[in-house]
């Protein structure tokens, strides 16, 4: 991520913090493809964008895990074992990809969270943190004119904090 100067007020905004290379999947995409993309690009969630370019949901490792628990009839403790082994990492996404490799029936639309939490580019960092905490999310999408233009993750917020105090 390129280091950009913070806004003129000195308080970082979503525009200052966001990553602008926004990967996404389509609702009809298979869970295998979504898990593979997460593993390849080292991300734990992707926006779901329909054919008209609208954000219609988010697919995350947690969504993949929920389907995995149901489909494989695993216990929640089994998922905790994999999380302890892999963490929230590309390896966990790779494991889910291998699980879904032969399953073209379940699509992203079937597993995604249909709510897309987003905020305008001028939202200040403190409000971004409050939104993330209140909604228990690790990423907040950034919108301009009704379209997603970036994403701010908890890692982005922590890097900004280091820049401010460090």
Describe the fold and architecture.
It is a single chain. With 166 residues, this protein is α+β, with helices and mostly antiparallel strands. It is built from 8 helices and 5 strands, in the order ααββααααβαββα. The protein has helices at residues 14-17, 31-41, 61-71, 76-86, 90-100, 108-111, 125-135, 154-165, and strands at residues 45-49, 55-60, 118-120, 139-144, 147-153. The strands form 2 sheets. A 3-stranded mixed beta sheet has the order 3-4-5. Strand 4 and strand 5 form a beta hairpin. Helix 2 (31-41) packs antiparallel against helix 5 (90-100) and helix 3 crosses helix 5 (90-100). The longest helix has 12 residues, at 154-165. The mean pLDDT is 82.
Q: What features would you highlight for this structure?
A:
166 residues; alpha+beta; three-stranded mixed β-sheet; two-stranded antiparallel sheet; 8 helices; 45% helix; globular
In the predicted model, the low-confidence regions spanning at least 5 consecutive residues are none
Describe the main β-sheet briefly.
Answer: 3 strands, mixed
Query: Per the principal axes of the C-alpha atoms, what is the gross shape?
Result: globular
Structural class: alpha+beta
Rg, rounded, reads: 17 Å
Q: Please give the count of helices.
A: 8
Measure the end-to-end span.
18 Å
Helix content: 40-55%
Strand content is: 15-25%
Average pLDDT, to the nearest integer?
A: 82
Q: Helix-strand pattern, N to C? A: HHEEHHHHEHEEH
Widest beta sheet: strand line-up:
3-4-5
Please state the oligomeric state of the protein chains shown: single chain
Q: What's the total count of β strands? A: 5
């Amino acid at each position: 991520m390129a280091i950009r100067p913070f806004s003129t007020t000195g308080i970082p905004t979503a525009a200052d913090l966001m990553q602008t290379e926004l990967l996404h999947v389509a609702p009809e995409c298979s869970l295998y493809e979504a898990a593979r993309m997460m593993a390849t690009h080292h991300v734990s969630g992707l926006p779901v964008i329909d054919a008209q370019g609208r954000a219609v949901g988010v697919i995350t490792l947690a969504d993949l895990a929920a389907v995995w628990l149901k489909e494989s009839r695993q216990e929640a403790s089994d998922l905790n074992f994999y999380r302890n082994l892999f963490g929230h990492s590309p390896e966990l996404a790779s494991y889910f990809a291998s699980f879904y490799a032969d399953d073209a029936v379940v699509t992203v639309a079937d597993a995604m969270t249909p709510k897309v939490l987003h905020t305008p580019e001028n939202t200040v960092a403190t409000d971004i943190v409050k939104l993330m905490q209140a909604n228990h999310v690790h990423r907040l999408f950034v919108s301009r004119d009704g379209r997603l233009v970036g994403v701010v993750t908890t890692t982005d917020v922590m890097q900004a904090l280091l820049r401010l105090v460090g």
